Amino acid sequence: MDTHAEPEQTWHNTNAAGPPIRQLFRDVIADRLPGPRPPQAAMLFGAEADPFWDDRSFLGDFYNEILHQDTCRPATADGLALVTALAVDDRIPARHRFQAVELLVRAATVKHCSWKDSGSIP
Q1: What is the tens place of the pLDDT at every residue in 11-60?
Q2: Cα(41)–Cα(36) distance, rounded to whole angstroms?
């Protein structure tokens, strides 16, 4: 038994910045998208985090902001830039990168796009 092993990093959700995955996503997006960011980035960079968020509930809310109930909205394409940045960064755990890729595939194959119905994009 190795008694000299480094202890695992402990995550605390009492941080005002929100759950650990939100903090990690924010760091990655800040590095990869330094210019103007899509509106969904407000969930990462807003001053206050939902006190009831844990990693799972944050991820659900974040991905839902981008592709709401498998429906494209006018801002969906902008939000996919965030998802793409997360999908290609090695700091993001593999499971979450896979979820990002899955969301990109779902967005690419969605059957209903509200922006098409509105006539704003041909």
Answers
A1: 444 455 678 999 999 999 999 999 899 999 999 998 877 888 899 999 99
A2: 10
Is residue 61 within 8 Å of 50, Cβ to Cβ? yes
Tokens read off for 30: 């800040």
DSSP state string for 30-97: HHH--S---GGGHHHH-S---TT--HHHHHHHHHHHHSBTTEE-TTHHHHHHHHHHHHT-TTS-HHHH
Residue 48: both structure tokens together = 């206050």
Beta-bridged to residue 100, according to DSSP, are none
Compare 68 and 118 and report the one with higher pLDDT: 68
Residues 16, 49: contact at Cβ < 8 Å? yes
Task: Tell the burial category of 116 from Cβ atoms under 10 Å away from its Cβ (0-12, 13-18, 19+).
Answer: exposed
Token pair of 105, please?
A: 């595939």
Distance of CA 44 to the CA centre of its chain: 8
Amino acid making up residue 99: Q
